[in-house]
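Researcher: I'm preparing a figure for a lab meeting and need a structural model of a single chain. I don't have an experimental structure, so a prediction will have to do for now. The sequence is pasted below. Please return the structure as tokens so I can convert it later.
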Amino acid sequence: MPRQFFVGGNFKMNGNIETIKSIVAHLNDAKADPNTEVVIAPPSLYLLLTREHLRSGIEVAAQNVFDRPNGAFTGEISVAQLKDSNITWTLLGHSERRVVLQESDAFVAKKTAAAIDGGIGVILCCGETLEQREADKTIEIVTSQLSAVAKEVKDWSKIVVAYEPIWAIGTGKVATAAQAQEVHAAIRKWLGESVGSEAQEATRVIYGGSVSEKNCKELAGEKDIDGFLVGGASLKPAFVDIINARSSHIPRIPSWSRVRVTDHSDCEKIYQLLEASSTQPDALDTVKEAVIKLKQIRETTFFNTYNTHAKPYVERERLRVVASDHPLHETIRILDLQGDEAQHRLPEGNVVKHLTWHDPSVREERQARLAEDTERWHVHTYTGLQDGEFLHHAAPLLLMHCSNIESLTYSVCPYTYNADRQAPYRAHILEQSLLRNNYGKLPETHLQRLRYVRLLPETGLWYDDARTYSHMDILGQLRLFHRLPHIESLAIDGITTNGGADHLEHFPPHTSNLRTIHVGHSMLPSTLVAVLIRIPKRLEEFTHFVGGRDTRDGGRNLFSARTLGKALWDQRGSLRKLDIDVDGLLQDDKYDRQDYERYLKESRRGAPDEQPYWYDEWFRLDEQASAGGPSHVHDLPDTREYSNTIGSLHDFEKLTHLSLGVKLLLGPPESTTPFRLVEALPKSLESLLIRGYTRGKTPKYDEAIGELVAQCSELLPALREIQGVEECVPGADVEMTRRRMVAPVPGEEEDVSYWELDEGDQDWA
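Model: Understood. Here is the structure written out token by token.
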């Protein structure tokens, strides 16, 4: 497990107000490795000056502290006085104090205990003279100095051991990397034997002794060298190069512009990115696009059969222990799992264990065992399940740590229809993280630059037939993104809704910054489309067309032109482009009125335990943030006659592009259109497409469209293009597809063509 790199700067008895300020200013402006802990130790006279001017993230240390709390000790400083001055570290046991001031090992140990007990971190120095090294007593001397401290101090979590060979301090001589590593390894071994395995693993051992920008990188490459205590070089600009020494030894991961979580082949790259969130956070800044497809994960890990051959692997994983200070514990705090008040709570330890399934050491050990296992193919189901758990838990971390993501392609995992009992648990962590982030319920906000969201349809395991619409709780999915500050575009294709079964049907209006909504090749009721239209504060572009797939039960949703028209009227001040093709579904609004009556009945419930399922915490938050207007579309005023049409659009002052079916525009042939078409279109209109019109077939349509063509140059001067008049532009045919539940057998030909989803390029880039 990696220890955080530590670099201390010991100014010794050097500097004045001017030079101290200059050094501090340089450190404040420097591009230092954010994963390196930096502490500087100026002369005691300048401690407060340094702390006052130094930026947060860099700490200040005293060069000495006394072991008594107060009293007649001229020239000394107490631990309490350091804490009172916001000084969080102290140097102790430096060879110059051991040699010049004759400080004994026992005295250094007492001062160390006083500092630790008082809450001050200690940079504990140790080291041998040249004579002692030549007499081969280096390890004996160093461990003796440390043993004195071990008698007084049991908790080493706030101690950084600094090995400083006295013969190398200020002499220009420096221990070779091999010499330093040998002593550091011996110190770490001593820690394990004398203090404990936890201290052996976690205590940082740093090197001091003529460290410079020239030798630091080689030294930093050694396994047990966790940083430096720098003397004279800390007074120079090159001190920053020493601070950045470790980063030059961390292998740089590729700079990705697109990342994905789709299948097991992505696991290793994803784990590298999770590690980089703490070691190379700038590597995640290049990510602009993310693809999250939970469908493949769920289907390939569904049958979690544990056979006899897999049991040893299962048991080994059950017994595997992840250290409490593993870096991923800090990485996942971004999700605030302890503050999650959702139904399925996720223990932090469980999440970290799922994530470390692809820790390089764990993965290498597993692969080595599999390579030697002649029955390894029986284990693939289990390892596939564990890969799926890893990906589900890694997905939210990846999204939250990549702060510059602008585009997200997201495949919904409909665990409502999934017999896998693990699926709700696995899907929870991603959806709950996105939900809480969207509503500002995480400690920090994320995805603040997300602009484009594409929701991919999910056919589900039991109905894996790409010819059918996919069930999607579209309003529930909107709750994951709609309040983000830069969100502007939502695209969905190939979906239907399940008639209220675990699906949201109501949503407060005018709560989102979305400006463009595309819902294509879908089968949605007009009541739901109306809600969708009214969610943005200022909707500019809306596209909705049906057809291309089949419903699973052979039925279809009905569509009311009046309901649609009232919803669009609510966006009349901003709508620029409108493209709707639903003529094949149009009926009167009888069913929409029934839905409205049910809504009124549910809304009148007074007691909290009688509130409708959709009136939850998130609905109330949106209700508070709503820019105004009634919640239900039928509560909007009737500002015009509809009579089975979309209504007049004459006051849609921003509308420039309009594409509609002739039936939606003018009503069915047998009805009376309550307006003249040429007067019902806005003067801003530049392009008009009429679908489903054939000249000479319907007198009512001929009259209205003929008048439009004749008078448009006078009454609609901006209209430059009219399509669908001379030659019929067909609308979506919702009757063309066969209604069949069973997919065709291989080789059987379809008698109709179904729309196929083009998911585009989703590979790593």
